[in-house]
Design goal:
The structure is a homodimer of 374-residue chains.
Chain A lengths: L20 H9 L21 H8 L3 H8 L7 H14 L5 H7 L5 E6 L6 H15 L3 E6 L4 H14 L2 E4 L5 H7 L5 E4 L9 E5 L1 H14 L5 E5 L8 H12 L9 E3 L5 H14 L5 E4 L2 H13 L9 E6 L12 E4 L2 H17 L10 E2 L2 E3 L5
Parallel strand pairs in A: 1-2, 1-3, 3-4, 4-5, 5-11, 6-7, 6-8, 8-9, 9-10
Antiparallel strand pairs in A: 10-12
The structure holds a DNA duplex (30 and 30 nucleotides).
Chain lengths: 374, 374
DNA sequence: AACGTTCACGTGAACGTTCACGACCCCCGC
DNA sequence: GCGGGGGTCGTGAACGTTCACGTGAACGTT
């Protein structure tokens, strides 16, 4: 702990200030008051104090100031205290740029999240944060709101400000590549052969197969699906669903799957209403994710149908929210935190030039959790 | 679009490479290397190419390279293309440190969140992100997991790497101040007179009063409270609760409030069980937040009590999750996104030397949302 | 033919910090 | 009296960019 003589800049004998000191600094800085409170300053735009200012006012060299603020050895305790006091007076804070320039190793990663309101993503973000922290990285977060243009804005930033990027993207590879000039990148939820970047994700097919098998096992043969909002590409979950129902010999085709306008409860509710109209005979429905599945449950309730007796509902994600609804949601649980961790591990390998994770190491397999809804 | 001759470095006539070019680059990277890397190439850890390397290999000056990569004018298209090609070849990416050193204005803010799994915080984070983005700031996120030590770790990082800090903290002011050497800081959820930093938050008292009044209006006179985990300080919500019940003349004292071990459904469930034992006669309960309130509902269901007939439950936060449970949760809704926005506005004022927001501008007032549970 | 203009490009100098040295002082031992 | 050594402190020189200039050459214009 350092005790300080407040309000006074100490100049012990033997270290007289050079004639230039005080004056030149104040000349730069205007009046005397460091914080200046309300008055004459050009509205809070004072030049930030540098290590040089501190050195000059304290009557020492830059190096000594550096020694003081980084508390290294080779400095007299009295000097250190004095320097620190001056630093406080001037509100000196070392420039992270200058510092980063000379000592390398500070890594910052960019994380692009489609929707912070969807509980799925904060959890993978938590995984990313964990793993990044263990590596000493810092991560800056960007909410793209599932907007292609905002994704590109993010990349335009990150290509300048980040050493690595992970995230969810709707844009195709080539567009992405054009906006992130060479930064190592890992895209989530895109098959390893569907991307030129690093990739991790969930094994959608494995999950969907388990889900459909479970429903069939329970006697369902007329199963619908509420897909995500992928208006363009069909998406692996839908593909896997269609493959699975075909494999089980069900009389279900693509007219049994309707896309949800958005990845939310409201979206799922709307899509379910639509599906009810199209296929009133269905007895079970598979949701693209838990939010949509919950929406399906609400739509069923609105029609006076009972879950799971009149309609079995199966989700995908394993949000803890699923345990709270009535009845509790059966779902394919994903280890979202692990997913996030994998993403940073993958991008770390990429930027280190190591060979990427593949197969089961990069693709987490959903686990069927049977609760009340199916 | 730029078409490139892959695998070959083009040297158009009139721009012959100086004899030094290719060779000197490798010479720089190995022999002459001042850093003296002992191993010839420690597996993908080659020194990152600088603007100088690109300039040399392309046979132009640094400035021209700069012009090319930042696509400014004053450059011949052919030269630009050639430089870009070399840059790609060398995997050149400008150093954000060197760049930040010379052009100021890149602000990064640190955000400390206690628990990403609690849906409350992602939403205020979304607000922070929004407002930061509008200012051109980038924000790096840290999950403190409600751990005092981790809070300090965050500050130790941010004091070096960030220009501003906002977040939730359990640590007292003086401890915080010691770890964030002079960085402008805004703490959330701490009264303006309880902190020396900037502060924004919610007007807990106003919220609690509305809630208690609502319960009393519905005829309840034996009201309990499930507090947060503040083992040390009582916390403003509890204080406000006790004041409100006293004002309404209820025979309720501090034995009617039990702290939840954690801010979660499970915590609320446990706390509610405890409260049932202590005060079996209660007819209504006020939750510290929605998660805890939902826990109370589950505890009630487990005892065969019906909500709201046997036990009215009131939450605090207004999570969208509250609409999903059965019965839907009555709560005091908080504009969490606005809260986040206010935080960055406040810290922006702080770092600009402007006077901070106060009163109704800095303290968002909860709004009573009556649903089924109370 | 002399002169201005534009275009394409290069040259120090800054930005703020740390690192590798070297200088100085004081005290000790012989 | 001299060498040596530990403790303090200062001095260029990096680090990788951008900025404000300066320099030619090519091309008109009068």
């Amino acid at each position: 702990m350092v005790t300080v003589t407040a309000g006074r800049v100490p100049f012990p004998a033997g270290h007289p200030p050079t004639p230039a000191t005080v004056h030149s600094v104040w000349a730069d800085n205007q009046e005397h008051d460091p914080r200046g409170e309300r008055t004459p300053r050009p509205e809070g735009t004072r030049r930030r104090a540098t290590i040089h200012d501190v050195a000059q006012l304290a009557g020492v060299s830059r190096q000594t100031v550096s020694r003081a603020v980084n508390d290294k050895g080779e400095i007299d305790p009295a000097t250190k205290e004095r320097v620190l006091e001056v630093a406080r007076l001037l509100e000196y804070r070392p420039s992270r740029f200058a510092r980063g320039l000379v000592r390398k190793g500070a890594v910052t990663a960019g994380l692009v999240i489609p929707d912070l309101m969807n509980p799925f993503f904060p959890e993978v973000a938590a995984g990313v944060l964990e793993a990044a922290e263990e590596r000493g990285w810092q991560v800056v977060v960007w909410d793209s709101r599932t907007d292609e243009n905002r994704e590109l804005q993010a990349l335009d930033k990150f290509s300048h400000q980040a050493d690595a990027v992970v995230g969810y993207f709707k844009n195709p590879d080539d567009v992405l590549a054009r906006h992130l000039g060479g930064v190592p990148t890992v895209v989530l939820e895109r098959g390893p052969h569907q991307t030129r970047f690093g990739a991790v994700g969930i094994d959608a097919a494995a999950g969907v197969e388990q889900g459909v098998a479970h429903l069939v096992r329970a006697g369902h043969r007329r199963i619908g699906m509420l897909d995500g909002d992928r208006s363009d590409a069909p998406g692996p979950r839908r593909e896997a669903f269609l493959a699975a129902v075909r494999q089980h010999g069900l009389a279900v085709d693509r007219s049994w799957v309707v896309p949800s306008p958005e990845h939310s409860v409201a979206g799922g509710e709307a899509a379910m209403a639509q599906l009810f109209d199209a296929r009133p005979e269905l007895t079970a429905v598979f949701g693209f994710n838990d939010l949509i599945a919950v929406g399906a449950m609400r739509a069923a309730a609105r029609r006076g149908l009972r879950v799971p007796d009149d309609l079995a509902v199966l989700g995908f994600d394993g949000l803890s929210l699923g345990e709270l609804v009535e009845p509790a949601l059966s779902t394919l649980h994903i280890d979202k935190r692990r997913l996030g961790r994998l993403a940073v591990e993958q991008v770390a390998r990429l930027s280190a030039g190591q060979e990427p994770l593949t197969g089961a190491d990069a693709w987490v397999i959903p686990e069927l959790v049977v609760r009340a809804s199916a």
